[in-house]
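Example (one chain per record):
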Amino acid sequence: MPRRRVVRRLLVLLLVGLPPWTVIRWTNPGGSVGYDSYFAYGLGTLFGPLGRHFTLLPTYLDHAVVTTYWQQAWPTGAFLYACALASVALGLIGREDRRVTAGLLGMAGAAELLHAVGLVHHNPRLLVLPIGTVLLWGVALARYRDALRRSSSSARKRRIEPTPVRLTRARSTTRI
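Predicted structure:
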């Protein structure tokens, strides 16, 4: 595969990790509106690392008590995204399996959606926008659709037919 395509996919995937993946809007009791966001690499205000308060993901995991499934989904999605980045980087040396990369992006998007749904379920007054899910699934479909289509058609061709089973009557070993 041409190196230029691999570099382009790597850059696109790096760009997917820059914007916030989950944006949360809430209203304070006084009526003022506030925003927070979860990024692939940390959480804080909409401005990310340039904002006043920002916590990197490793620091958050070191100090936070992550007990519920939806709280675990955000770091899991970030890990799957990092694995997808590594998979694309392997393409620079010709070792990328594009089906694996597409699957990692799909699972990372699903994890981020689970995180957003968990936030809303935990606090119904929040408005949660799962931007990361849209970005991850969009890249998986736009850049890896042909690999997924090829893998599903080849799986259909390789379908293993069941071998017929002969049923025989068991012989009795007891004598009367």
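Caption: The radius of gyration is 23 Å.
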